[in-house]
Amino acid sequence: MPGRSPEEARKAFLQPLQRALSxxxxxxxxxxxxxxxxxxxALALSEDPLRLTSARxxxxxxxxxxxxxxxxxxxxxxHVSTTAYRYHLLDDSGAELIAWHWHPGSxxxxxxxxxxxxxxxxxxxxxxxxxxxxxxxxESVLRLLLIDLAVPARPAHVADFAKVLDECESPFIEHRRWxxxxxx
Amino acid sequence: xSTLTADGNVVELSREEGRAMLDERTRRxxxxxxxEFEAINEAGTLPDTPEVExxxxxLPFAR
Lengths: 184, 63
Prior knowledge:
The structure holds two protein chains of two kinds. Chain A is of the alpha+beta class. Helices cover about 25% and strands about 30% of the residues of chain A.
């Protein structure tokens, strides 16, 4: 999301995210502060994990992990660049149901470095198996919670949450620099 | 702690506030202080668990 200054780019990134989250929770979005533009910053939820009730599967807990940095586009423009994400859904006991990851800088099998993936333990597939995905947005995880898992929307967004999520995700889709893995 | 949006729902934490938040989470999830967590992470001996993965993602709050 571009802006004419680091602050403007930061707000253009954070405001749609918070609006999307407001469809499902009133928990606050916490953000760290780098010492200077370009430092890696992080997002977190004030309620962690965020405990929700699904009409389909009962309690489901959402864990948000997201890192980003501000990148100059030239002398008069900045944008936010995601540097890693880990979005987890847990059951009532804390067991992992599904997790979407992209963490190109962390250790692991170097042949998988930079590939977005998900972990979805099922049967003989354990949580260490990397199931390939494209890049996943926070809004798309919220959409899954609200629609497929039938987590109730907050009263103010019962009628419009799908529209709000589409609107909030739109700038991300428009300005993202990548969607699937590319050779570096 | 400063709010970045008019509704007060995006909150920027200072380094001290971020360390306090993360210390609460390392104690709750792993039973160790943030300082212990940072030392073990630095040594590269943390276990590969969802809780650890999540807390590592939050480390910019402590820097």
